[in-house]
């Protein structure tokens, strides 16, 4: 089954979607944590208590050089959770991914804007690739096409890397990439909400309620 994540550090929103979605865990990035005003360790404590011990968490290194990224990744990997270390897919980031994989650390290559960039990360051993679908679209590119190319390359070359598509502004983008058979997706809260939003849903349910009440009052289904 596709792995479904929320791209957030908001504990209230995570609780809401944990209630109704089969969440695998949450993904974060430096901007998300900075905006939340809560550090990584406290966020992970809250999230782990909420989602349980099987939840998977993604946290990004902020170091700049490959060796220091590796040292930071080792610290993240020591946290008592199922951690995946996010690494920006730069020249140093690719070098860091190679080092991290030698050390058996789970890695996601992030900030992917092109198929070639993601493919190199996959060849370096990244467990996950995070192509930024909406950010690519917003630059007059084709985010879904990048994901399609990456998925094709992964399959053609028999790689175990999974695409964990990220950066969405609407459900169309999310649905388009999920149709490609990718391994995972992380949704911001507003797009997660759009998953069960449609103007026809509430009127349909209201009509059922009215018809039922007219016929059977306040009886429950099995009482009728
Ligand atoms: O976590 C990185 C990615 O999800 C970025 O999303 O919405 O900032 O483009 P966004």
What does this structure look like?
The chain has an eight-stranded parallel barrel, surrounded by six helices. It is of the alpha/beta class and 224 residues long. Helix 4 (66-78) crosses helix 5. The chain starts with a strand and ends in an 8-residue tail after the last helix. The protein is globular and about 70 Å long. The protein has one domain: Alpha-Beta Barrel (TIM Barrel), CATH 3.20.20.70. Strand 1, helix 1 (11-20) and strand 2 (25-27) form a beta-alpha-beta unit. It has eleven helices and eight strands. 38% of the residues are buried. The structure holds SN-glycerol-3-phosphate. SN-glycerol-3-phosphate binds next to helix 7.
Give a nutshell description of this structure.
This protein is 50% helix and 17% strand.
- The CATH class is identified as Alpha Beta
CATH superfamily: Aldolase class I
Low-confidence stretches: none
Determine the N-to-C terminus distance.
38 Å
Please estimate the helix content. 40-55%
Ligands: SN-glycerol-3-phosphate
Largest beta sheet, briefly? 8 strands, parallel, barrel
Write the element-wise H/E pattern from the N-terminal end onward: EHEHHEHEHEHEHHEHEHH
Count every beta strand, where a strand is a DSSP E run of 2 or more residues: 8
What best-fitting shape do the alpha-carbon axes yield?
Answer: globular
Number of helices: 11
Mean pLDDT metric = 97
Structural class determined from secondary elements: alpha/beta
Which strand-content bin applies to the residues?
15-25%
Number of domains: 1
Instruction: Please state how the strands of the largest beta sheet are arranged side by side.
Output: 1-2-3-4-5-6-7-8
- Tell me the Rg in angstroms: 20 Å
Task: Please state the second-level CATH architecture.
Answer: Alpha-Beta Barrel
Query: What is the CATH topology assignment?
Result: TIM Barrel
